[in-house]
Amino acid sequence: MVGGGLSAGGGGTQFEAKITPIVIMSCIMAATGGLMFGYDVGVSGGVTSMNDFLKKFFPVAVPLFLSEIAPTRIRGGLNILFQLNVTIGILFANVVNYGTAMIKGGWGWRVSLGLAGIPAILLTVGALLVVDTPNSLIERGHLDEGKVVLKRIRGIDNVEPEYLELVEASRVAKQVKHPFRNLLKRRNRSQLIIAVALQIFQQFTGINAIMFYAPVLFDTLGFKNDASLYSAVITGAVNVISTVVSIYSVDKVGRRFLLLEAGVQMFLSQSVIAVILGLKVKDHTTDLHSGYAIFVVIMVCTFVSGFAWSWGPLGWLIPSETFPLETRSAGQSVTVCVNLLFTFVIAQAFLSMLCHFKFGIFLFFSGWVLVMSFFVFFLLPETKNVPIEEMTEKVWKQHWLWKRFMDDDDEVVVEIGKVDGAAKKNGHSNGFNHTSQL
């Protein structure tokens, strides 16, 4: 490792960096993608409860950008800006739905859907203001420009240690010609398993089912249509506030603590909801006193808050920071694909499950919360304060199980060495300064 400008902290090397305005602005602008996604998620639930809509029709990449551009010590908080924008988008959509549901003449749902253009415009304008990440520039061969951008976003001139590490990581990554095929290799299996499992588990918490169909859910509890939308606004506000809690705490207490604490919170809240609904709501009658109904809403908010500072943001954060550079884009693509696939599965199945399981739907999801909490406890390593270029050495090779999958790294080094040796023998250069070894 090159000396100078380094400090030890957390689980890995801490490169010197200031929290610069360009980083904050770029992260905020990039995270606007979450605002559009969140609005689309939130508006669908309210629109599908509007009679005019029912009569008419029923007779990604951002987390990766944030992880690469953010300083290590606040990487988690800045990455969660994406999830914060998702929750703000959902809250905005719930407020809009509450207002447009009162519009006469069948135009309410059209207004709700049309307002999705606002976050789209913000995202388009923001795209003109953000900078490319140094990782991306170096990967594309723009070494000098990469160093200039690195100085801008770190706010210092002495970026040589971090720059050289990025160059070396890029050099190694260039040896990989098939990143998607490489994902399946033994040394990348741990990151792939974690990323896929987190996306599946995130959906099986039941959060998207609740957020998509919160109005329908509250209707089954005896609320009127307007009160249903109003209750969805409450849960949306809890979602936003709790995500802010995650931004503040994720780089202090770590990823594992938030996931495990929230696991207990979500398990208990869903179990309580199931018990209350099981005792008070029968097949064709509702014996749910207003006090019990309010308590159910409180329990739903308790569940939402636990998700919002754990599985919501961390389901995106952890995969974006754990893959090595040579498979990072491919790994993030798989992450998004799996997430959207299981979002679709749960969204399509939820109403049928609710009709058949009734209160048991919450027991179904709470059972999954228990399973995923055990998964986190035994299999998920802590990535707090570890530079993403050092994840393999500082995280995966130190884990009691996943270190067993790292034993073919030597083969990679040998192969890369052969390539370099052949190039030197033939008088060719690969264009990089070799300053460190894997």
Automatic annotation (TrEMBL):
<dbReference type="InterPro" id="IPR020846">
    <property type="entry name" value="MFS_dom"/>
</dbReference>
<dbReference type="InterPro" id="IPR003663">
    <property type="entry name" value="Sugar/inositol_transpt"/>
</dbReference>
<keyword id="KW-0762">Sugar transport</keyword>
<comment type="similarity">
    <text>Belongs to the major facilitator superfamily. Sugar transporter (TC 2.A.1.1) family.</text>
</comment>
<feature type="transmembrane region" description="Helical">
    <location>
        <begin position="291"/>
        <end position="312"/>
    </location>
</feature>
<feature type="transmembrane region" description="Helical">
    <location>
        <begin position="359"/>
        <end position="380"/>
    </location>
</feature>
<keyword id="KW-0769">Symport</keyword>
<keyword id="KW-0472">Membrane</keyword>
<comment type="similarity">
    <text>Belongs to the major facilitator superfamily. Phosphate:H(+) symporter (TC 2.A.1.9) family.</text>
</comment>
<dbReference type="Pfam" id="PF00083">
    <property type="entry name" value="Sugar_tr"/>
</dbReference>
<keyword id="KW-0812">Transmembrane</keyword>
<dbReference type="InterPro" id="IPR005829">
    <property type="entry name" value="Sugar_transporter_CS"/>
</dbReference>
<dbReference type="GO" id="GO:0015293">
    <property type="term" value="F:symporter activity"/>
</dbReference>
<dbReference type="InterPro" id="IPR005828">
    <property type="entry name" value="MFS_sugar_transport-like"/>
</dbReference>
<dbReference type="GO" id="GO:0015145">
    <property type="term" value="F:monosaccharide transmembrane transporter activity"/>
</dbReference>
<feature type="transmembrane region" description="Helical">
    <location>
        <begin position="107"/>
        <end position="131"/>
    </location>
</feature>
<keyword id="KW-1133">Transmembrane helix</keyword>
<keyword id="KW-0813">Transport</keyword>
<feature type="transmembrane region" description="Helical">
    <location>
        <begin position="228"/>
        <end position="250"/>
    </location>
</feature>
<feature type="transmembrane region" description="Helical">
    <location>
        <begin position="257"/>
        <end position="279"/>
    </location>
</feature>
<dbReference type="InterPro" id="IPR045262">
    <property type="entry name" value="STP/PLT_plant"/>
</dbReference>
<protein>
    <recommendedName>
        <fullName>Major facilitator superfamily (MFS) profile domain-containing protein</fullName>
    </recommendedName>
</protein>
<feature type="transmembrane region" description="Helical">
    <location>
        <begin position="22"/>
        <end position="41"/>
    </location>
</feature>
<feature type="transmembrane region" description="Helical">
    <location>
        <begin position="82"/>
        <end position="101"/>
    </location>
</feature>
<feature type="transmembrane region" description="Helical">
    <location>
        <begin position="333"/>
        <end position="353"/>
    </location>
</feature>
<dbReference type="InterPro" id="IPR044778">
    <property type="entry name" value="MFS_STP/MST-like_plant"/>
</dbReference>
<dbReference type="InterPro" id="IPR036259">
    <property type="entry name" value="MFS_trans_sf"/>
</dbReference>
<feature type="transmembrane region" description="Helical">
    <location>
        <begin position="192"/>
        <end position="216"/>
    </location>
</feature>
<feature type="domain" description="Major facilitator superfamily (MFS) profile">
    <location>
        <begin position="1"/>
        <end position="384"/>
    </location>
</feature>
<dbReference type="GO" id="GO:0016020">
    <property type="term" value="C:membrane"/>
</dbReference>
